[in-house]
Fold:
Amino acid sequence: MVMECITLLFQAGRLAEARALADTGLDGLVDEDVEATFRLHLALVCAQFALTEVAAQCDRALELSGASPPVRLHLRIMRTFGALLEGDFAGAAAAVDDDLSAARAAGDRMAEVLALNNASTVAFHRQRYGEAVAQADGAAGLASTLGPGPHRLWPDIWTAWVRAAIGQTDEALAIVDAALATAQRESRDPDTRWWSMCRARVLLSAGRLADARAEAEAVLETVDTLGLGKPARNSSAYTLASVALRTGEPNALRTAASLADWMTSQDATTMKRSGAWTAALVADAEGDVDRAMDLLEETFAALGTPAPIFSTPQDACDVLVLMRMAIRAGRHDHAAGVMHEIRRRADLNPDLPLALEIARHAQGLLDCDGDAMRRSVTVIEVFPGPVARSQVLEDCAEILIDGHRAEAIAQLDQAVRWYDAAGARHDALRLERRLRDLGVRRLQSAPSGPAVVWASLTASELAVVRLVADGATDREAGEQLALSTQSISAHLRRALNKLEIDSRAELAASYSRHIAAAQ
Structure:
């Protein structure tokens, strides 16, 4: 009962009351091992609702001389995890090797899973991506031998996140979709929401903006009722803000700014840094590059150090976005710092083609080297998703425009097409204005009537519409598409709004007319 009350207080953000109740609830406990176990469980709760409390609760428990060796081992590893959540990278990095050795020496496979996951996170922040992937896979594989249970959730999610962050979005999405289907089949609603959160983040990395938004909105609708906590809210907020910057919808942009403010107001360094990055993106999109630079002072200061920069997991191409910001602001010192970081990543990951091409592209961007830019275009498939590829084309076009006008215009035109395909209409319109300034008017096919509206549906929205029009319930559609019922509802709601339809019956009739017209 005490633990349940403490959990509810943390969920409500009433940290002082939660701490006081925890201390009161432990009064009179004679067995220090029981108290240590209690605080270990409390740390697990804090990992969702009060990130800066995780390490503090573990420290209190580790002071108890009567804590048993197994409990002490798990407390040590949880404390390292708390340091990572809080942004204390140096503390976490100093502990991971000893944690892993101790877990293996004890033969405690659960502790080894947690220690491996921490080690993978440290390797990721050190930009040793091959090592991070190997350790993440090791943690997930070992967790699978322990049977079903909540211990599998975070290692499995981390394996997907790491791959998405280094540009392997197809592999990441395959992991997520398989796990999401299993969670739905077994009616594990909290796990389904966690996987939807992860899916939203991977879809964002892949440039599938409408689908990412639908997943993130579905998560935020249930984040409190299912007790998912701050990590899920933070990830979903970042996803929605990033999509808003690409689509340019006024309401979404206002929401993006407020989400950035919320993230920045949090205690944990990781949350603050994620909020600062989001706020800087908003400022840069509004043309206020000086404010963007001010918001990112800590980020620039972290360059060249083995520490979280944007928070985690960042996308591989975010360093190019940072480079562009510094160049637009005329901050060549910052641009040089970003270049040093990019080269270091490439040197540490010689087997990762994306890291090498990012380094080549960034150097060409810094030097205004047209030949280097052309090299990026020839290997553009290495860059993950249509948004990242469009940005590469923009970089190349702006450097080539004075001496190679026709080539640059063709690149801008292709970038518009890719932005449109991703749903990044704000970016597409911006480039269309740029082309008009250059005296170019793009010829576009102009379908009219209902065909225009139906063409505006995303692939996911259309897939949901097909099933619902045939009479499927949200749950049935979710089972067929490996999506949660909340995600199905979000896709359906957006489709109905676009089609200006109020009911499923009307949707079925409209879909029949659309199919007949297409034939």
About this structure: The mean pLDDT is 85. The CA atoms of residues 51 and 353 lie 35 Å apart. Residues 32-49 form the longest helix (18 residues). The radius of gyration is 24 Å.
